[in-house]
Amino acid sequence: MNSEQGTTRTEAPAEEDRPTRPASGRPHCPPELIPLRDRVERFVRERVMPCEPVLDGGGPDARRALRTLQQEAKAAGLWALPLPAEHGGQGLPLADYAHLAEAEGASDHGPAALGSAPLLDVLMLDRHATTAVREGLVRRLVTGDLRTCYAMTEPETPGTDPAQAATRAEAGPDGTWTLHGRKWFISGAGDADLVTVLARTGGTDGDEELSLLLVPTTAPGFRVLRELPVLGAGGQWEIALDGVTVPGDHLIGARGQALRIAGERLGLGRTLRCLRWLGQAERAFDLMCARARTRTRRSGPLADHQLVQQLVFDSLLALRTTRPLVHEAVAELAAGGSARLETGLAKVAAARMLQQVTDAAIQVHGAAGLGPDTALPALFRTGRTARLLDGPDELHISSVARRVLRDHPADPAVTSCPAPPAR
Q1: Polar residues: which segments have biased composition (predicted)?
Q2: Which DSSP state fits 45?
Q3: Average pLDDT for residues 73-99, to the nearest whole number?
């Protein structure tokens, strides 16, 4: 089985013509951040990536390996870089953290190993949780002593329309809330201590009285039903809420405000995913280039063949045209904007780009790209799922197009060509 490509050979460029910086075109990094970015990149490459086979396997061995990496990250001063300083993080603002997020996200396990994985939950609770919850839980999330996850999607309702959520939370006379329902495709639910659940707190189906509640996984009635392998890989789960009761102060934000709060975390969450997908695509690109230069056939290195060069060029073009879109979204969010158009464009472009680049890298590797000896199968799996995560491509395409058409002037500045002068 071999699909390594090649046809016409071309001469390799002279050594002095080769670039001295990564060809994939990183954005300008402020000089003061370069040493930190390099340390993050080295930690992920030298410590996290070698542990991926164990971390991917789940179970006690994976948990022990992750704890070891987290301790090493803390000792190296790389822990919780973007998390709020007042809760024990390092307080790096988004505009700065974006320069590190690609390197951190080159491995799926990088954010967890370096303590940035709970960023969305920490920010959400810091902004919207009650004082008791904020003071009791947020710092423990930052230190890594507690693990959280977010449960919105349900088996029988479309994830693109949360207003149809069937999970219900009923208010008790003592101020508590009791939840009934099912949620699925929840990242990390198997090891989580807390789950943020989107539930209907009033009204009927279609009505938007939806709220967010924080549910301890030790509460009676909470059950992990099963793990849901995604294209053969674990990490996603289905849960049941069978009469789970939580205190009234576990309501996050005001009653009926779930969609507004979810919108806050989705914009940042999508942008963080895009940054991490860029890091994973660059990893696949590097693997492809290394394979092309070192794999030799009787006719010479794969790098000398035009079809391989086409794959390299197209992958580089995808990386370089996607990266500015992602950093536009970062800049808009950092400035306090909603960035809905920017994150929609970035999310679709980054998902497509990751799938394209990893597919090209697999093609250059031939059969070796399908097996367990490289990270390419996992990277390709992420690329394919990326087109559904945080809303399918179709949702973002329609949303961006509607926004553009709504805001576009009805009367274009030039409606017709001027008549030619009379002779």
Answers
A1: 1-10
A2: I
A3: 96
The model's pTM is 0.89
What's the pLDDT at 421?
65
d(CA 219, CA 217): 5
CATH of 25-117, one of 3.40.30.10, 1.25.40.10, 1.20.81.30, 1.10.540.10: 1.10.540.10
C-alpha distances in angstroms, 390 versus 160, 186, 345? 9, 12, 13
Tokens 């070891």 sit at which residue? 68
Q: Cβ(194)–Cβ(213) under 8 Å? A: no
The mean predicted confidence, pLDDT, of the chain is 90
Cβ atoms of 197 and 251 within 8 Å: the answer is no
CATH number, domain 148-256, options 1.20.58.100, 2.30.42.10, 2.40.110.10, 3.55.50.30? 2.40.110.10
Helix, strand or coil, per DSSP, at residue 166: coil
Mean pLDDT of 345-349: 97
pLDDT digits (tens, 9 = 90+) for 302-330: 999 999 999 999 999 999 999 999 999 99
